[in-house]
Known about the structure:
Layout: E1 2-5, H1 9-26, E2 31-34, H2 41-52, E3 62-65, E4 67-69, H3 80-87, E5 99-100, H4 109-122, E6 128-131, E7 153-156, H5 159-165, E8 178-181, H6 184-188, E9 192-196, H7 203-211, E10 229-233
Parallel strand pairs: 1-10, 2-3, 2-6, 3-5, 6-9, 9-10
Antiparallel strand pairs: 4-8, 7-8
Bound molecules: 2-amino-2-deoxy-6-O-phosphono-alpha-D-glucopyranose.
Amino acid sequence: MKIIKTKDYNEMSLKAASMIAAQVILKPNCVLGLATGSTPLGTYEKLVEWCNNGHVDFSDVVTFNLDEYLGLDPSHDQSYRYYMNNNLFNKINIKIENTHVPSGVTTNIEEECANYDKMISDYGGIDLQLLGIGHDGHIGFNEPSDHFEKGTHCVTLTEETIKANSRFFESIDLVPKKAITMGMLSIMQAKKIVLVASGDDKKEILKKALFGPITPKVPASILQLHPDCTVITPISL
Ligand code: GLP
């Protein structure tokens, strides 16, 4: 695992965006795994800028997002589909049909999850997966558990995650209690992983994930086993 310490959030975003841009330039039809949350916003801003000034071309890129809240329609302003359209997809030259986010309003969760995994594998897997990290060590919405879940699946969010994400909703009661998330297999099979983390509130969990025991109680700790994982962070560890 490679750790890049940056001077601030802006430099973190710049470096993460540079790695993604390099991936797209080297393989224009690459498959990107994308994340939501507040941390990657700066990364997406840079990519938008570089696409608009002609430096990066997303016209053949395919994307798979990590997760989606169960019960939120794509038009809901807190759905992850809405977030991705608003912060990235509608601002770059990607074909919207090449972008994938699990459906939060599916009537058949099992089928939705199985199809999601099949689509990822039909595209040959993910070339570069961007990740954030939750306060409890979750990646995507893979919450602490007694085992690592392999495939895309439905999860019940922890109280801690619901509380952390309530800042985006009018009230904590409006935060969905469940989500669909990519499992550990698609994430770990990504050829390259880039994890961004910022803010002192992430310091303890980041230390545990990077240097502590590998355990499903700290889902991000599995990344220690990945052959090409880069952590970019302004946090002093
Ligand atoms: C959410 C997302 C994760 C994200 C995490 C951290 O729960 N499902 O993919 O990494 O929050 O978000 P933030 O970057 O806002 O701290």
